[in-house]
Amino acid sequence: MSDATTQERSKTSGGQTIRPDEAAHFGQLAKDWWDPKGSSAMLHRLNPVRLQFLRAAVDLHWANDVEARRPLAGKSALDVGCGAGLLCEPLTRLGAEVTGVDAAPENVAAAVLHAEGAGLDIRYMAGEIGDLDIGTFDLVTAMEVIEHVADKRAFVAALAARLVPGGLMVLSTPNRTPQSRLLMIGAAEGLGMIPRGTHHWDDFITPDELGELLDEAGLEMGEPRGIGFSPAKGLHLSNDLALNYIVTARK
Length: 251
Fold this sequence. Notes:
Blueprint: H1 3-10, H2 20-27, H3 41-61, E1 76-80, H4 88-93, E2 97-102, H5 105-118, E3 123-126, E4 137-143, H6 152-161, E5 163-174, H7 178-189, H8 207-216, E6 220-221, E7 225-230, E8 234-238, E9 244-250
Parallel strand pairs: 1-2, 1-4, 2-3, 4-5
Antiparallel strand pairs: 5-9, 6-9, 7-8, 7-9
């Protein structure tokens, strides 16, 4: 990426978080989103790891029975950057009343169609998270999203505004390290495991930077867990934050 391109991507947008080029890129992937061998195959591999962390965080936060099948019963959940619903559908099955928001209308259309086919009642909409009149939620998630937004500070503030007092937020994102540049962009995108142009390393955010943004928004960040990769384990929760990490936040 040239310096000029990096500088252009780094500009904030006066509170608007959606980048039209990013929305268009992911909208083009909508038709394959639910194909575990398609362009979103990596997300299908990542989703169980995110759900493992999320389930443990939910149980700890609300002191749930760890054996409960619907630990989010009676709770509302918002997934921002929901794509075609890979996380929204499991959250619904865990008992939550779920809303999914995405920047790409094509993704929302694919999400609605898939949820209807699965018999799941999920509210989906496209648009700028700060502009939508959708209320507040017990659980707010944004997985692999903040690295794609135009104004990270405005995005975190908008997420915080959607979280009820005493609620739980869960975020995941790539770390900005030499390892993530090498593996996520050089290897994964270079070898076609992730569609080319999906990531821009300069937009990755470190745990310290994310912690500062959350603190500014009145949220306390929990201890991050790494999402690592090895040939033996595949993607898995790890103490190594170098590639990707997932973290809770609370008001």
